[in-house]
Amino acid sequence: MIYKNSNIDWSKIDAIIKKAQRILLTTHENPDGDGLGAEIGIYYHLKEFGKDVRILNYSPLPTNFDFLNSDNIFETYNATNDEKWISNVDLVIVFDVGDFKRTRTIADAVNRHKIKILNIDHHPHPENHIFDHNCVDLNAAATGSMVYRYLKTSRDKPIDKKSLEGIYTAVMTDTGCFKYSNTDIECHQIAIECLNGGVETHKIYQNIYENSTKPRIKLMGGFLSNINYELNGMFAWSLVTLEMLKKAKAKRDDVEGFSDMVRSITGVEVAVMILQQDENLCRINFRSKGKIVINDIARELGGGGHPLAAGAKIKGDIEAVRNIVINVTIESLKNKIKLIK
Predict the structure, then answer these.
(1) Ordered structural domains, the chain, with CATH
(2) How far is CA 101 from the centre of its chain?
């Protein structure tokens, strides 16, 4: 049984997918569990139907998701090696992207060859999106939930275990291990089916959340020891600089979950992490505990996302970006905090 109501006609989506023979699956740069899990969820389904399908992402697979890659199916896009194959693709399915530009050079290749695009997502999108088929449900807990609905309506036999592993990964990570406010009946129904299908859910959790390297722990220590509190402690923020990454011998992927730690502090309603990606570019993560919407702040800074989890990228050195982000966030939160008191 599928509990979530949706206006999406999955039979029409299935017809579009089955009509294509060569299919490219992709997600946004710096992929997370939802995008990666959704790709896996559909990949094995399509292979079962004899499709020529590949997963090509702009960014390499984060190491804590290596367990999904037992068949070495995640590939990092290389224009030189992949151009010929992409030139004959019938359909691109993009997951969890928010904005197609976030696929970076893959978007360039798709546009260059004028390939049809099917978008499956639970994020809001710009009105001037270029998708030929825009399959969006803002109420879905995860893109993986939507893939689950598609598979339930397009198959006449049980979902493959490997697809279920991807779907479980997507739903678990985007619901904060089933503890965020977006967790609903469908999420638990999916978890039950995954358990019944033989998915070792505890191992997925361990791979993602209990697999920290020593450099990550060292970086985490520096990040947490430099938390700043504003607005009587309701807003907290911290930085990860290039120097911190170098000193800890850590990677940018190691910051996953840092902003959630700040949000978990008693009294904090909004948390922000500023990650310096290079000398002139920073990534911003916004997290809200639930009372304050923060994706409008992200949009003001050129980004976007969910009401309670959003992000942006800003060009500039770390000090300039920090000042902009903190000032804009404080000004926006002043009025919002008054409304929840």
Answers:
(1) 10-209 (3.90.1640.10), 214-340 (3.10.310.30)
(2) 14
